[in-house]
Description:
7-stranded mixed beta sheet; alpha/beta
Amino acid sequence: xxxxxxxxxxxxxxxxxxxxxxIPQETRLPFPLSKSTAGPGAGSAAIALGFGxxxxxxxxxxxxxxxxxxxxxxxxxxxxxxGKPFIENVQVLKNxxxxxxxxxxxxxxxCIFNCAFCNSPRIREAxxxxxxxxxxIVKTCKENDFxxxxxxxxxxxxxxxxxxxxxxxxxxxxxxxxxxxIGVEPYAETRExxxxxxxxxxxxxxxxxxxxxxxxxxxVCPGFDYEKSLALIADAVQVFGKGKVTxxxxxxxxxxxxxxxxxxEALAAxxxxxxLRALRVNDLNRASLKExxxxxxxxxxxxxxxxxxxxxxxxxxxxxxxxxxMETMCCRCLCCDIVPFYDL
Length: 344
């Protein structure tokens, strides 16, 4: 039996927990692998796969590992688990700009912050000028008929300068593509920066709380202030509106389920959509995570990923929130998380 009777979300949770997939060198792919400079898969070649009404994006492992992508005799693809059937029908997705069906770009990788989990500063890739980013977005959207744009960036100098670069890119893209939906994932330290992003033409915003508790945040992102982040997220809802603001809560740092759900409820009570993201541990961030936390964390189990997603759904229903209100970024992409409500 394919996947021992598990449904698509259960299978996806196993894939997210593993975080990688083996693709033999001889396996022919219809599209090139992607290489992101932001997000859970930053720094590694990755593949986006679609199945059962959802998607997943996994780092590509060239050495045999638990999961592998197989080319079927019929010409389609399947995922094997330890060499045994796991997912019968898998689509390899075109992914020219980080996320399927949208142009999701990172302006800079170098960062003044030292978040233990983030691989972007460790990639050592030079950032692009805002003019280059805007040109890339316009070109990619036209070539692929994308209607969604997402912009993120590390902070190489100051948060204010980062906001200026976001605003430049948004305005330049709006001149040529007035009807695309634009989401932004900045660092912000003032309501004024948030307001300026909205006035420039951003439709949605993601301000990440990152960790479930202030104590853990102080360890993994020492430059961040937990209470200030919560206040700015509430400000963003006032500026962008209910259902147009989201925030990552990364779990796997040693927090309890109760910690995660208390944070998710605090965000939802402020009309912000919580995005629960399982920590991915890899060669780039393993040492920094161990140093920050005092132990080497492991990827959350599939059971925990599913348990928290189910509780997240109930919290969102309680506050009248749905991921379907987001048209860009992670809620729309679906690749890295279990996303309640949003089916393809």
